[in-house]
Design goal:
Strand content: 15-25%
Largest sheet: 3 strands, antiparallel
Distance between the termini: 29 Å
Helix content: 10-25%
Length: about 200
């Protein structure tokens, strides 16, 4: 979520939970009027949500930056045909000073089905990179839906719970390293084999 002190329209206002650390420093944790808490990224990622999915940004900011525009030259890693990189360039030249915030307990979870630590991706219309697998055992779900009290417990994790701690796979295991950390891999490259998939636009 990208914010400059005010979140998207559905969350009407912020309150600020301020905790004084033992060394005298102060950490600021924004909270929406719904009670959902967020954690700021600082300068460790692009704040605008250039891909345009799973993000919420004020309407006037999107209007100022303009619509997504595809480009003829693009890399297969970019599912938006160059639109993401173009949006990042426009943000950097806009003069805006924003920061991205994430929900401390996420509302959605990435479906990790490739044992190398990624998911299947469709590129160039019908090329599927990475391993795809349906939910095991005929279940409609990849992960168990957690109860509200479980989410409340996770929300107490500081600064935020890890992905591996939030999701509970149904009938399969996440690809993790020897210390239990989720593996992450980029499988879209000219050398990566792909599968042709019919019926995709």
């Amino acid at each position: 979520m990208t914010a400059t002190g005010v979140p998207s329209r559905r969350a009407a206002r912020w309150t600020w939970a301020v905790d004084a650390a033992a060394n005298g420093s102060v950490s600021i944790e924004p909270k929406a009027s719904s009670g959902v808490r967020f954690l700021g990224y600082g300068d460790v990622r692009e704040p605008i949500g250039a891909a345009g999915h799973v993000t919420f940004t004020r309407t006037e900011i999107r209007r100022r930056l303009g619509p997504w525009r595809t480009r003829e030259e693009h890399h297969p890693r970019d599912s938006g045909l160059g639109a993401e990189g173009d949006m990042i360039r426009r943000y950097r030249s806009s003069g805006l000073r924003l920061e991205a915030f994430l929900m401390t307990v996420p509302a959605v979870a990435d479906v990790v089905t490739d044992p190398r630590g990624t998911k299947a991706r469709i590129r160039q219309g019908n090329r599927r990179y990475g391993r795809y697998a349906p939910p095991p055992g005929g279940s409609p779900l990849y992960y168990r839906i957690r109860e509200p009290q479980e989410l409340e417990q996770l929300a107490r994790t500081k600064p935020a719970p890890a992905f591996e701690d939030v999701v509970e796979p149904c009938g399969f295991e996440l690809p993790v390293d020897g210390e239990g950390n989720l593996l992450k891999a980029d499988v879209i490259s000219p050398e990566e084999p792909y599968e042709l998939v019919e019926g995709t636009p």
